[in-house]
Fold these 2 entries.
Entry 1:
Amino acid sequence: MEMNNWLSELEVGDAVIVRGIGIGRTARIATIHRLTKTQIIIDGTRYRKSNGMEVSSPCYSVLEQATSERTVEVHEKREAIDLRNWLYGISRKENSLAELRAMKAAYDKADAP
């Protein structure tokens, strides 16, 4: 579907992907809260209906259609980020030798061909 058609057919409650533009910006799934004649409002942030771009922001984001394939991709990328953050937190904890051995064994098992 053409971008302008897709954007013009959105309704309150529809899911969309909000993709950040720039280094370190990630995509997320969001729900449309309100619509005006020219804008789409999500969590207080305004996007143009004409092109899906965020209105008046130096670190802007853009809306994408939430297809099933793209939604899975966004969820998986978010999960990978969350797991890396979790792992970083684990590395900063005081773990017993038994806990460290168990984590290493689980990692080795998952890494084995």
Entry 2:
Amino acid sequence: MGVDLRLASQRIENLATEKVRVNIWNDEDEVRGWQESAREILAVERPRETSIYNLSQWLKDYYTRLNPLSNYRMVYSDLLGWALACVDWREIAEGFIKNEELELE
């Protein structure tokens, strides 16, 4: 009986994504800013998948740059960097795009 590494990896990714999503949605200023970004992207980007991809890249770049430990060489900086790399930024971006589409209806 071995460990299913694919399943374990998926669970870690889901956990990292959920933690980031919850932290973003608990900060009204962050939500407002990302909704504005989603609105701007939807105004110029087509198709929808391109909008989601572009917003996911903005999210990933923003939070990766905010990593307070990125300039340090230690286990904590490696772990935080790894956790951020596990986040499904597309899933988070899709939530903002979907929310903005609902607002436009």
